[in-house]
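Supplementary Note 2. Why include the ligand at all?

Several targets in our set were suspected to adopt different conformations when bound, so apo predictions alone were not considered sufficient. For every target with a known small-molecule partner we therefore ran a joint prediction. The input for zinc ion is given below.
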Amino acid sequence: MELVTTHTHTCFTNHGEGTVGELVAAAAAAGVSTIAVTEHYPLSDAFDPVRYVSMGAERVGEYLAAVEAARAAHPEIEVIVGCELDWLGDDEDRDLSHEDFSSFQVVLGSVHFVDHWPFDDPAQRDRWDEVGVDAIWRRYFEVWCEAVSSDAPFTIMAHPDLVKKFGFMPSFDPQPLYEQAAEACAAAGRMVEVNTSGLQYACKEMFPAPALLAAFCRAGVPCTVGTDAHAPEHVARGIEQAYRLMAQAGYRTVTVPTADGGRREVTIE
Ligand SMILES: [Zn+2]
Ligand SMILES: [Zn+2]
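The joint prediction is reproduced in token form.
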């Protein structure tokens, strides 16, 4: 079946590799039919002082032009322009409006920060010991449900259980948190993704966990697949495995955003 990835990164941030052109060329070569290029949306200096995790605000125009050029160069593949937008909750310090996102057909909604702390940053891991795993898990899902229920322009909620990245699992059964997340996402009418990059981290499984993915399926939340590639060679990594995970969770189709802002369904074979 066709391969899709709706979550990818480039050298527009200081932690990604490869130009937009190289990324899209690699996707086309790997047989991908739809790719969304979703660079990290600019953060303030307070959150990203050295411009490591996000794209500089002054580069957004250049980024949009690069995606447009890649689309023109590769008519054999659908290229969607997107971005990955951090949910900062009460700590939001940017003056964002919906117009800022009118050029993006896909906006990934991500929770990388809980109470100003980038909990998935290896350099700031010590705080896990200070706060405690159980408390962080509860707070993460509380913030995630706030994000999904907000009026932020998110189309797809990215890596829904990113909190497990380091493999720190709670002492309690997270199922009630999963049910809350699924209900909130269904009520908001947003999509989720299976993010294949989880396999590369200490948690050793894709995001979301099978039980959370099944809860999304039962709630009727549409699901797509993103590789979260930060280098062209990883653009198609794990896509077919993600489809199998979706099928095991009960999904019969993969929902794929389209460049005109719509969605299409691809049957999982
Ligand atoms: Zn992310
Ligand atoms: Zn990402």
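Residues 193 and 224 are 5 Å apart (CA to CA). The mean pLDDT is 97. Comparable summaries for the other entries are listed in the accompanying table.
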